[in-house]
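Lecture 7 notes: from sequence to structure.
We start with the chain below.
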Amino acid sequence: MKKFQAILILLSLLLGVLDAKAESDEVYFERKLPASDQIKILTINPVRMDPKDFSDKGEEKACKKWKLTKAQIIRFFGLSINYSMSPYHHYSQTQCDITGKLIYNGEKWDFYINGGATATWYRGKEQKYLGCEDKRCKRLFIIPYGSMN
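Predicted structure tokens for the same chain:
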């Protein structure tokens, strides 16, 4: 009987740990933003890169050619996961960035997109973190999600 009680206690503790993990994942992964038709891209700046930071000549060459149109940026945002905190440890990062401005739900945001399929929107102290794991994002980026894992 004591073994049975010990097993029940152990199982309830284990279930509590699993339940706590599920709750923390739900906070971290907010999933998708509302419909991409609520996003309007105002400006896209040329790719920012610092050639002296490249250790890989292939990445430097890819960065020089990398461009995203307004439609591609909206598609990326629509396919991305919206994280409650920075997901950059989950994705590869590049020395290539595209910045610009957008309107989302009537509010102006600045955005920063990295060639590793991540983005940050910022407005004052408020930030949104995005990353795309969807296979449809793969051709949009220099190092798409999963290619370095």
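Points to note: Confidence is low (pLDDT under 50) at residues 6-27. The two ends are 48 Å apart (CA to CA).
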